[in-house]
Amino acid sequence: MFDTDLYQQVLSLSAAWRVADVKLDIESTQIHVHVEHAEGSQWACPRCQKKLACYDHAPERTWRHRNTCQFQTLAHARISRVECPEHGVVQVKVP
Ligand SMILES: [Zn+2]
């Protein structure tokens, strides 16, 4: 029913992220967009900007996005963490 490419545009995601799944909940008038990052992506340490491979993932977070029609849009994603030699394991910045 929903085009994941469309939501890629709607949420203005950077190339590292892709929409994995879009679910419509008619009863609660919510749209749940599940976002994943591409395999093998490199992430910048939020403190020194050094590019690092994904170390692990923080627990899933949910962001409220502006509504699509009358539906409340909620984006769900597990944010990557990187292990920086200087700053340790840190969570990357989210677009
Ligand atoms: Zn760092």
Structure write-up:
The chain has one domain. The chain is built from 1 helix and 8 strands, in the order αββββββββ. The strands form 2 sheets. The protein has a 4-stranded mixed β-sheet. A 4-stranded antiparallel β-sheet has the order 3-4-7-8, with no helix packed on it. 14% of the residues are buried. The chain has 95 residues and is mainly beta. It starts with a helix and ends with a strand. The longest helix has 7 residues. The protein binds zinc ion. Zinc ion binds next to loops.
What's the alpha carbon Rg, rounded to whole Å?
A: 15 Å
The arrangement of helices and strands along the chain is HEEEEEEEE
Tell how many strands the DSSP assignment holds: 8
Percent helix among the residues? under 10%
Tally of individual domains = 1
Roughly how many Å apart are the termini?
26 Å
Strand content: over 45%
Bound molecules: zinc ion
**Count of helical segments?**
1
Structural class per helix/strand content?
mainly beta
Mean pLDDT: 88
**Tell me, what's the shape?**
elongated
User: Mind describing the biggest β-sheet?
Assistant: 4 strands, mixed
Strand order of the largest sheet: 1-2-6-5
The stretches of 5 or more residues where confidence is low (pLDDT under 50) are none
